[in-house]
Amino acid sequence: MNMTSELWAALVTCFAAVFTGNILLSYFLGMCPFTSVSREVKTALGLGCAVVFVMTSTAALNWLAYRFILKPLELEYFRFVMFIIIIAAFVQFVEMVIDRYSPKLYYNLGIFLPLITVNCAILGASLFMVIRDYSFIVTVGYGFGSGLGWLLAISAMAGIRQRLANDRIPAGLQGPGITLIIAGLMALAFIGFAGVLT
Prior knowledge:
By secondary structure, the protein is mainly α. The chain has a domain at 29-165. It contains 8 helices and no strands. The chain is globular, with a radius of gyration of 17 Å. The relative contact order is 0.21.
């Protein structure tokens, strides 16, 4: 594969990861922070940007670790441990940067910022990269697209929940109930993209 076709494949994979194969709304990975941190748009955007950065960076680093350390040594079964160590190191870095430059966002994100380490969407992106045997450039495109798709989904959810804050919702549906209904409707909307580009 030449560089042009690699870049084209990365672009197509990135687009597909945002819309047709959205890691959150198609595979339902990363639902815990999605339902908990999506109360305010600003907080959701902050966490979403952190997820985009961590997912893109760790997908690339995990690809390198898998191809040049685990595979040559025939230690592929250690990929879970290696991937989580790399993800944890990056999350620690992001946490320190946010704490230093945006203490309010750091406070708003609370426990969910360190929990990016065990966000199954980030680990899932790295595992999909191995299962689908992506090249390095396609892996970076997939990691960025998956993070962008997660950011798009949590931002949309936060916007909807902020609009619903002043509306009268039946008592039985308030809180998690209406959040899960909205998530289901959003997932149905994203399923509409299926078949457009896979």
